[in-house]
Sequence to fold (707 residues):
Amino acid sequence: MGDAEPLDDPFGRLVQEVGASVGLLYLLPPEESALRLTVVSGVPARLAAPWARVALDAPVPVADAVRERRLVWLGSREEMARRYPTLQLVLPYDFMMATVAITEGVAVWGGIVLLWPLWHPPQLSADERAMIDSCCRRMGRLLRKAEDSGRPVVPEAEPRVLSPPRRRATERIDAAAAVEFAERLPVGCCGLDLDGRITFANTAAADLLGTGATTLLGARPWEVLLWLRDPAFEDHYRATVIGRRPTSFTALRPPDTPLTFQLYPDASGISVHITPAPAEQPLTAAPEQPTTPADPPVGATAHYHLMHLAAALTEAVGAKDVVELVADQIVPAFGAQALALMTAEEGRLHIVGHRGYPAELMDRFDAEPLTSDAPAVRVLTTGHPSFFGTFADLKRAHPPAVHQDDMGAWAFLPLIASGGIVGSLVLAYDRPRPFPPAERAVLTSLAGLIAQALDRARLYDAKDELARTLQAGLLPHALPRIPGLDVAARYLPAGRGMGIGGDFYDLFGGPATTAVAAIGDVQGHNVTAAALMGQVRTAVHAHATAGASPGNVLARTNRLLTDLETGLFTSCLCVHLDLARHRASLATAGHPPPLLRHPDGRTEILDLSPGLLLGIDADADYTTTGIELPPGCVLALYTDGLVEVPGVDIDDTTAELAARLAGAPDGTGDGAAQCTMESLADTLVQPAGHSASRLDDIALLLLNPLT
Fold:
């Protein structure tokens, strides 16, 4: 196995060339479903530790970039809060972010995360994109070459941390002269490395901090000074390192000495300037810079409540539970005196729940048409949050507005989940409120968490009513035992939504030594698609049992679907097995081609006459093709979820699947074959080495004639 050192140079140069303040390099180990942090630049490993392992289905930018093979750009804090609320909670700092996948051919090798300070332009330049693309291609080639040579690069137990570039001018400065210079200054000066440890402190700094320089050196300030153990100090440090912007705050050194700390970061560390604060300067604990006395602080307490609410929402079962949790926790934790949670139903506003508002006022807004210009309707239809610090602000934006609730400020927040607006949240405050950027970001994150919980809860409610009874009959509970045939099957639901898909498979015995197998995919991922799937399975089963050839089975099923006029199309592959003669007859209706692995391991993609999808043309014909099916071969039937990868030609992914099937081990004897089919099924439904996870549902059916 090789280490990641060859990646240090191209990755480090990329970070410098594009001017990024922070860079994270992830690798996707073969047969794993999580990215592993491998190289870090610009921050200590300790700060990056929470992101050392990122699941491919996690709602974070780098996972999306790798899974969808695209660049994800986040140009503002509010955009991050809207698209990735959980990430914004953990990193409530000012920066811009780009994430991109490292690809080479059909392979996905990992991903890159780059962070810039806020002074970066709102979009990536063409040159920056070209440099990022070039670096990803180069690293993809390096990783491919390493794997082909038998020494694949694998992540180490701990990520490698790149040393910051040294300034040539600094190397020429006499160290003793620099110390003497700092000692002559009448103000406190100290230096922190990127890990927050003190690397230098002059005498004035030690005097102001009330301890000796030897106590400070090598330690983090909040670890050795009890009065700096407030989480706010470390939060300032993190904000400075990640956001790469100067920050200042004032803290009280007991018993009565206020000190002002000014932090100035670069790629190598932080310079800290310490001076006595004017007596009239207020003490602050908020991480925002600059902060005025009028700005309500949004610090550790608010984030704690938000995280607590997030954890509680994961336990909510139905929509009613979500409403109760939101009402119970937001009103006391976030300073609002009233709230209302709303959804859109049949073109009208529907009040799901409220707290702090009188019922008669909510009744006036319930069933408000979505054509209304009311703020609560506008935010639901546009998806854009609105903040009004006073009623005058609200009146200017919505002239017809009437002051009905006696409140002084309002936040109207869209509830966006899975790319759609599922509702809106109104928070009302009894006094005017400025809503600074940090608070807006926190409230937007709050809305995102509620939206996800409400979306899940509503889907759960729908599942509870429909899916339990419907889906139980969609797929075989168990495959039948057919003499002379070893089989294995898998079904994996789509990663998102109700988990009800249109993929299906079936297997049943026929007369004497025959059997029929079928696999198909109904368009859509909803209850309608699932119900149609059941009808298709029933039709295929009935026609095949009556003795029709695979082509006739599809033709008759097609006429049925066309008559139903569902508007949904279905791909299907039907196989008739003659185990005594070691032959098979196949017909397909626009379904992905089956794979046939011969007993010697050679694997081919069967070229069948494709035929139209079922449900398009009632008069469509379907050709039946005969093939040899000798003992020991494997016939693999699958749905397109197994081979469709965003941005990759399906012919390439199908060829890769065939190669994986060809490389699977052979079994000898019935018992070994059974074991091989089950393990082979598990192997094939997993993402291929260096391939991202799938978004569509997957069905797989393996047929292995025995001797």
